[in-house]
Amino acid sequence: MRVMLRTLVLVVLLAPALVPLQACAEQASAQREAAAAGATQPPGTAIASAHALATDAGLEIIAAGGNAFDAAVAVSATLSVVEPISSGLGGGGFFLLHDARSGRDVFVDARETAPAAATPEVYLDAEGNLDRDRSVNGPWSAGIPGLPAALVHVAEKYGRLPLKQSLAPAIRIARDGFPVYGRMARGYAARREVMERYPGTRAVFLADGDTVEEGELFRQPDLARTLERLAGHGFDGFYRGETARLLLDGVRAEGGRWTAEELAGYRVREREPLRFEYDGWQIVTAPPPSSGGVALAQMLQVLAPWDLAKLPEAERVHLTVEAMRRAYRDRTFYLGDPDFVDVPVGILADPAYAAGLRASINPDRATPSDIFSGRPTPLEDEETTHFSIIDADGNRVAATQTVNLLFGSGLVAPGTGFLLNNEMDDFALKAGTPNAFGVMGFDANAPEPGKRMLSSMTPTFISSPDRVAVLGTPGGSRIITMVLLGILGYADGLSAQQVAALPRFHHQWMPDAVSIEKNALAPETVAALRAMGHTVDVPGEEVAGGRRSSDSWGNLQTVSWDRRANTLEGGTDPRNPVGKVGIRPAR
Question: 392: domain range?
């Protein structure tokens, strides 16, 4: 059986694409026709984000006459202020936009880029092993930030209001402060040793002479000034001038080697989203350099023939895990920055390819992950953040942004007020060596000057004749499977809040284990999966190989519009007590 499966998988990997993805115009036409069955415009605006202040900032901008894209700038910038644990101006992100007037979907890629000095060799120690401290801490772990450029781009190209107006809530909150919440205080405690290496970081987080504590007011005057320069001068207010000087000085003082040309040369990329169908739903999602959309297309198309809702829980989870296993294997070998490598999206996202993967699944037995290993052919629990928006015109935004691990690199360049990312760890710094999330890569995701590291961020739209939904989540390599489970939840008819609260399980090919949240699966389901040959990591149980299964993970934020009833609803992850859904009726 093992030899037969290996042969089949290799044949499938080399199969040509038989059915091309639908073109943009066809998708837009189908969505307009579907909308004709019900309301053509939502009754107001719905915003779901991981922090109440960010949701309120977005609603403030809507009340001032802004659209979903202006609100996205406000929400993104405010999350950068109130969630330094998860994202910020020193990081990057992906903005999936739907313009209702034209019917166009566009993916704004604001992923960080590799500095020219960051070659693979500088991340190896004297024995040739990956230097984990250098890859996740300090200046060498940081890529050139992309989020500020995205805020400018989205505001200028898609918004109605001046950038200065959309950034005003974030500037106000940075200057006046906000109460420290438990997740932020716990995250600081976990990263304190690294963060206190750097004088710029100490000036922000130890400004009162003591560590951040839950409930205290946290002010960031340097960050307010950085945001004011961005508001006043746009792109040049961050990538040139005073902010750029402070950044370069701070990075160089800690031994990094960024250049002014690299900063000034950063550009966002507009890319065509990935589109496919599942069970009557149109899915619009993230293309490379995100791995999420391709993996979603593979997993959902593998699962398409089964009516999952009618299957026993153990069988349903088994099939879903097997789809996950195959998609993450392909992620490892094939995906990277499409500006640098030829990513075979047409093959990987093809229904015919998915059919071949499906044929390799034994419905009664786990497939050992090492059956798929070989040469490539010719987690994050508190990190990252997501928000979802639908406005009264029908515009939509799904945005996921990050600094990678908790508080990113831990480094604040003095005078800037924001933490730099540690996204260089998302490259395959040493081929075949797992990163902080346990996923690995090869040449397709090796660092090169100006290249964007592979990401799991998966902002997504789904639509049917009856319903439209926007969703996404943080969670490192688990992001993709959480979005998968969210889509399956919507397909089963769940409400937005039920989707946000769904229990979670995950498999990423290597290590060969199913991780689950506490109480996510019934004990008899766990036993049945183990009888099929699955290794299941259950929170609280001793786990072999040093793996761990967190009690919970992710922070899914979603909004949806019921076209037939013409109602809006949102869901914010109950695992995060400071998230908020806000709904504002149209005027």
Answer: 1-534+576-587
